[in-house]
Amino acid sequence: MPIDVDVALNAELDPVEFSWASSDVQLYQLALGAGSDPMSPRELSYLADDTPQVLPTFATVAATFHATKPPTVQFPGIEIELSKVLHASEQVEVPAPLPPSGSARAVTRFTDIWDKGKAAVIWSQTTVTAPDGTLLWRQKRSIFARGEGGFGGERGPSTSDAVPDRAPDLEVPMPILPQQALLYRLCGDRNPLHADPEFAAAAGFPRPILHGLCTYGMTCKAITDALLDSDAAAVAGYGARFAGVAYPGETLTVNIWKDAGRVVASVVAPARDNAIVLSSVELAPV
């Protein structure tokens, strides 16, 4: 069904109420690679019983953590097959450290829909509040829908992936476990692209790929560990564009620059001619 821009942008989506426990946070951060050194106090701080520190990227899975079925892309004015959808970008802002357990209410709205000709880019924003109305976090994201363009909408601005014109200040290796996608899918992302070899082949990949949001979370942790002494509470915001894919079993490199009070980065796959996996990575310290 063609995208109906007016319907989608004016839709009032039902609020979603959800809760999470410290064990959910532990599993999420374990799926990102926390605990790789089980003797390290810094690594164990992500996995402490009852009071693990919480990376802000937990916000990307909190509402759907206990999902057991693949997601759907069906909303007022938007109905797209999952196999046509790629995650394009994700950003999260946290006014205060996320609690290790709690309950919340999420309200999502579509903010822009761009017509790229053969594809569409759909932007949304989610505001998440505690039961007393306190803002917990705000997410902005975009998805790329293949074959859904051509509806006569605005093309949208061009994007730039510029990083400082100098060598990175730091290069951090980021190994991916062979089973990492199978572990991360237990955090609520059951898209078969990351677990089913036949589904991955039908989508044009030689084997299942790692969840983009897993790479996203791993990179946030890598930067936090490298520059912020593994203090998740020191991160006020974080975002990235999904520029390519990562495969379980390979080792990525996080190139990090300190630039005018902010941290920018890119993630590449050295074994694949430094293919870019994440671009426009930016972490805002508190």
From TrEMBL:
GO terms for molecular function: (3S)-3-hydroxyacyl-CoA dehydrogenase (NAD+) activity; 17-beta-hydroxysteroid dehydrogenase (NAD+) activity; enoyl-CoA hydratase activity. InterPro entries: HotDog_dom_sf, MaoC-like_dom, MFE-2_N. Residues 18-147 form the Peroxisomal multifunctional enzyme type 2-like N-terminal domain. CDD domains: HDE_HSD. Residues 163-266 form the MaoC-like domain. One of its GO terms (biological process) is fatty acid beta-oxidation. Belongs to the enoyl-CoA hydratase/isomerase family. This is 3-alpha,7-alpha, 12-alpha-trihydroxy-5-beta-cholest-24-enoyl-CoA hydratase.
